[in-house]
User: Fold GRIP domain-containing protein from Ciona intestinalis.
Amino acid sequence: MKKVAGVQEELKLAQTAAQESTGDVVSLKNIVNELKVKLKSTEDELSSVVKSSEEEVAEHEAEINKYKEAWSKKVQEFKSKREALVVRLKEEFEAERSSLVSNFQEEKKSLEERFERERSDKEEALTSKMSKDHEDEMASIREMWKGKYTELKQKAEQRIAQLHSKLKETTAEHEVLKEKFYKMDGSVAEDGMKLKQAFEEIASKSSEIEILEKKLNESEDSFRDLSTQLDESSSSHQKAAETMQELREELRSKEEELEKVRVGEEEHRRNIEETHQALQTKLSENTDLENNLKATLEQLGVNQSKASGLLEEVTTLKQSLEAAESANNNLQKQNNELIAAVTSANDNSEALKRDHEKSVALSQILGEESQRLKTELEELKEMKANDAKTANQEMGEKIKKLNNEHQTKMNDLKKKAEQRLTQIKKTFGTQLEEKLTKIAEVNDQNLALKEQLRSLEELRSEEEKEKSERMEENKNVEELEKKIRELEEKLEQEVEKEKSEVVRIMEENKEERRKHEEHLDDVKAVLSEARQKLEEVEEKMKEEKNNYEVAIKEERSRRIMCEERLAKEEMKERNMEEKETEWEKERESYSAQLEVLNSDLEKLKNESETQLETQIQEKESATLELETCKKRMEKLEKSREKLKVELDKQITVSNEQQQALRDEVETTKKQVEALSRSAVDDSSVELDRELKKMQEDFEMRMRSKEEENQEKVKRLVKEYETEKAKMEEKFQVQILNVTEKCESGEKLVREQHHVEIMQLQKDMLKLEKRLEDTVEKYENEIHKREYEMSEQVDKATYRALTAEKKLQDTGMEHTIVQLQEQVTELSKSLASTQQREREISNYLQEAKTRMSLNSHLADPERVKYLRQVLYEYMMGSEGKTMAKVLVVLMQYPQDEAQRILERHKLPPKS
Assistant:
């Protein structure tokens, strides 16, 4: 019985212990349930925080997408603007090139036209003056030379007749003397009478010789006059040489002008290179903008990657929470099994002990699992920190990679820019080659002018040859004069000898008659000598005749040369007519080109107006973008305020939850104390330790969560504020860049227009100065050519007169008549050519007057008014007045004028 009572007591004790253990298990279940509730609450909080963070991330992503869209639009706009700028610069360059080409062509055309006009005017004036002066001088010279020719002819005929008569008389006298000397056998008285008669005849011959000497002196005077005329012709040749030198100087001046034109073209090339550099700078600026945009987009991608990393971390946390929930479920199952075991322990105490040990082990397992969860949470925190570090490292590596990619892209862009520059240089090279071809054409023209100068020099050399021939003729004439003088001296010597011989004969006759035979021999010798001398004189006369024939042949050859020159001049006149026709064709082509240029100018005006409109639209779009940015900033501020309010609410809720958790902890403490009083000392101590550990863990978790939440909130606020500040700065910088670009574009356009207008004015002044210089040069050339032509006419008349004299001397009057007929024909042809040139000059003057009347800016007052209006327009005022003035001054047709006025909202002109 005692054993039964002991067993019953043991059973009671076991039941009480089981009840206590069941109470402990129930309390543990309650604690686990509370922990589950807290975990659920924390999960809900985490889910709410995750949702809020996801919403914020979504909002940020939406904003980022908006910013991306805005940036993409701006990038597209910048690309379009860049393309428009490139196109505009190309168009401006092409317009400048076309304007330069047109100016060069216009200058060339104007110079050619003025040269043609001046040449035609001067040629007309020269031809008219030459024709009049030539006709008058030819008439006067012909009359003078005809009179002189007749006088000289008469004198020469008289001289020749006298010489023939004297020769006949001398021959007859010699024959008479022979007969007398043969009849000397008569009386001495008869001889004395005959000697007296001979002396008288000798005296008469001496008087005749004196008369001949006077005539020879007169002929010498005439030859001296001719020599003076030849000297005058040589002086005229010297003047012609001086004119040639002046023409060479003019050619040098023209070459200098060409060098100036080349210098201007080099300056234009330098301007083109400067524009290339400006384009390169603009392209580099655009590439910098693109790189900045790419960097911002890459930053946005990095932010997106960060958000995706945060989402992945949230998913990992969810997975860990799910694993913890599964562990808790397993623990609940084990607890249920323990309850079943406790119920079965009423049958067997040993089983109860085992179950008690199992419960203790389970409590230990629960503590270990709780510690394991703590360690896992700490590991998760460390993992997060490590992930943040690795993320930062990856961000640094990504930034390095992006920098490397940026450098590679910059190099690629530089290569592309260099390729574009090479292409542009090729295009400009073709343009420069065209300009070089034009310069080569100008050089060809200069070479043609040089060839003309060479031809003039050849003419000069021919004239010098003619001069030398004339000098040779003068020398021949002087030699003839010397020969005549020698003959006269010989005749005088012969006369003196005859006188001495006669005196000697008289003395011998007086002194000695014996020596009569000797005297007869001497007379015979004298007669033989006289015969020889007569023969010599006849031979000399023959030689002179031959010389005269040679001179006539030379003059015939010269006449042929003159005819050839006249034919060449006719060919030149024909070539000039052909050139005039070609020039007329070129003038028509230039007029067509002017029309095309006018149409191009109208197109350029329309394009400039469209560009101004596009700039105004860009300004308006920039202002709209500013307004939209301001609105976005206001929205962001509102959203920031909302987030602040929500964060405040969340903070208050979290504080309330913390207080509730603290209250629950206090209640749990009280329950634990109550349980500890009723429980066993060992189990109570262990439970106190476990509860303290759980409480400390829970408090640590709560603190860590609070700190994490606060740090997250602060971080999000800081990120939001930094992103907002960055976006504001970027928008402000973009707005400033857009405004500066618009203003710089307007300034550049205005400055370019101003510079172009000033250059046009300078070019106009330079052209006017060049025209004045060319007019003066050509007037001087005309005067020089008039003087040269007058000298050539004088020379030709002198040649004609000399030829006429020689022909008349030789008795070839028929050839003289033919030459006169040829001269009349040539004068008629000259008159016809002069009439043609006058008609051409009148036509050119009429065309000039038409062009001057058709010119829109002939009136200087209009030019002044246009300058004033252009100045005001460039200063930024009076655009409508500018349109009106251009319509009036440029004299557009009615359709175009109405379009322009409608475009500027002006009333149509009446």
